[in-house]
UniProtKB/TrEMBL annotation:
Short name of any one Pfam family annotated for the protein: zf-C2H2_3
GO cellular component terms attached to this protein's record: chromatin; nucleus
Domain N-acetyltransferase ESCO zinc-finger residues, every copy: 1-36
Upper lineage: Eukaryota, Metazoa, Chordata, Craniata, Vertebrata
InterPro entries attached to this UniProt entry: AcTrfase_ESCO_Znf_dom (IPR028005)
UniProt feature coiled coil, ranges: none
Superkingdom of source: Eukaryota
Protein's recorded name: ESCO2 acetyltransferase
Single GO MF annotation: protein-lysine-acetyltransferase activity
Keyword terms: Transferase
Keyword Transferase (UniProt): yes
Single GO BP term: mitotic sister chromatid cohesion
Organism: Alaudala cheleensis
Amino acid sequence: DAGQRQLGAQHCGSCGMLYSPGIPEDRLQHLRHHRRLREGLSYPGWKQERVVAEFWDGKIVLILPGDPNYARRKAQAVLAQVDSELGFPSSPRCPEPSHIYLFVCPGKGVLGCLAAQPIQQ
């Protein structure tokens, strides 16, 4: 290793990515991954938000189909991030009758997401 401290693969504690910090391409890919997670899961807060429940570590915000565009866009961005992380093909938009619940922690952004749809059968 010739005295190099950052040789070999390392596991990032905050995002979970396995990368090699000694390789510039890996380091750049890791920074892009971090930026994508930060931007997709950030939550600045809204003046007119529908808070369902509040806890000591965060709150649950409900987004309905009739909500303003900024709320629906945030729900779609979070769902796209979740689909990407789980390996599902991303859908172009969330289904109309779905209710999106976001668990939001101040300073950390969106920590959880639930998409609920009414079903007939």
